[in-house]
Amino acid sequence: MLDNSPTGMNGGAPLTRRELYDLVWAKPMMHVAAQFGVTGTGLAKICERYAIPTPPRGYWAKLQHGKKVKQEPFVEVEDPRLQTLEIHAGAWRLPDEVREVIQYAKARQAERQRPPPAPREKSPEADVAPAPPWPVADVHPLLRRTAQALRKGKPNADGAIQANGEGMAGVAVGKDAVERSIYILDALIRSLVERGLPPTMAGDGMRVERGKDSASIAMSERIRREKHVPTPEELAAEERRKKRLERYYATRRTWDAPSSSDLYAQAYPAIDTIRTGELVVQIQGWGDGVRRTWADGRTQRLDRMVEDVATGLEAILAARRLQREEREERERRYQERARRHALARQRAEREKKREAFLDRLMELRREVDALEAWLALTGPTSALVGSHARLIGWVTARLETISRRLEPDQISAALDAEKLFPEPDELHDPLGDPNEPLGW
User: Fold this and answer.
1) How confident is the model at residue 245 (pLDDT cuts 50, 70, 90)?
2) Which top-level group of life is the source organism from (predicted)?
3) pTM of the model
């Protein structure tokens, strides 16, 4: 079940499977998805998850041209978890602060990109396609090393020119995409600098920091791999390699021994790597619901999405800050509870010591009472002689010693020595003993 959206078509109220079935068979999937604020692919996945049949590819085109089409029937399911669902725009899953960052950035972007008033008369040059804004003559200082590496670099085995390493933006594109990639990165850097987010060239990408939080973004080019179709020249070279290898195996002449590459490598590659010219920029790591990837598509081009990329970076930094602060708050609460539990354990140990101290006092008090009672029963001691008299003297001395230990100042000194009643009390917890188990 997706999160709520104030603009959701069902306003947060659940839909039945039948209701969604009727919607997706009443109009094209993209139109229904737009009403919910989700993508057509996302809505199709929801229908698949809830076992709701959807129109096949080409259904609406056939219907529009009057051709016969077949609607798949609605089928009830027994699983109660599939009876109702909610569909809402994914952007509203984001925290309020992240959503505000995106909305503010988009409003600022729309204001900046507001088109100028149209001319009253159409100029003769209006039908001429504008020239691309690259190559960039005055590259931003942060990008100069990357631009130099791309412009002077040579393609590798996959046809990619790379700008990796210290002080570079971590780019890998084909020769035909070099100038366009420089233009996009230059525009992105300037937009980030304007937003107070000057990037650092990290070697494998561009790193943007705001306070304790950071995000890295890198550019690449989509590739396609296809089976290689050898040319006649390559087939002839392969035949020559095989014959030479056969002669070597037949004669085993060391002077005619082929090199390892000749021995094992085919004269032409099995797979061709085709560079499509489609550029992609991606923010590394988690996005927590915020868009992380922008790429050339059928209608959109990456060079027109630079501001969207910069906005995405701002939004991810905001999301990561909120996540970090939440983690820090959880850690703070955990540490505080751990501290209070430690205090509670120490207080419990001290309470046992207090009880033991009191037991010793009570034992001494009972001994004092017993000794005094025994001495009272002995009567006058002046007539006693020998060992009996010495016993009475020892008991009297012991009674005096124990009695001194029971005097208030002696008890207070003993308590202070064992820190049983300190002031102030370092083990005091103003919130009381925590009874909940230790954990998150």
Assistant:
1) confident
2) Bacteria
3) 0.65
